[in-house]
Design brief:
Radius of gyration: 14 Å
Distance between the termini: 42 Å
Strand content: over 45%
Largest sheet: 6 strands, mixed
Oligomer: single chain
Shape: elongated
């Protein structure tokens, strides 16, 4: 795996959302994550700032297939958020190699109905 893939996301505040990510290498080929020892995803205001939402393999992240993982965001996790945030996923393989698998902007739009 080389440089991380840019994945920009958008949702409405207070919605439930399932996020499904595919992990691919620089050539667009699937990366086998079935034996990953760690997958972490975080949402923050900007890179290197404190995480607002965190997800981890074993508690909230599920490996879905050879190169995919998913997790759910509950409405309560985003009901008080609005604006453009930064998100990033880190994967540690069964051989101990660490990769930033994806990163990008995550826009949370305000809603009228609460």
């Amino acid at each position: 795996m080389s440089c991380c893939r840019s994945v920009n996301l958008c949702m409405y505040q207070g919605d439930d959302l399932r996020l499904l990510f595919s992990v691919v290498d620089s050539k667009g080929l699937d990366v086998d994550i079935t034996d990953a020892t760690s997958i972490k995803w975080q949402l923050s205001e900007r890179p290197n700032s404190v995480a607002i939402i965190s997800k981890e393999l074993g508690s909230s992240i599920t490996i879905n297939s050879v190169n995919q993982f998913y997790f759910d965001l509950a409405a309560v996790e985003t009901e008080n958020l609005s604006g453009v945030y930064y998100h990033e996923a880190e994967i540690i393989t069964d051989t101990g190699k660490k990769y930033t698998g994806l990163s990008g902007s995550f826009t949370i739009k305000p809603t009228q109905i609460k």
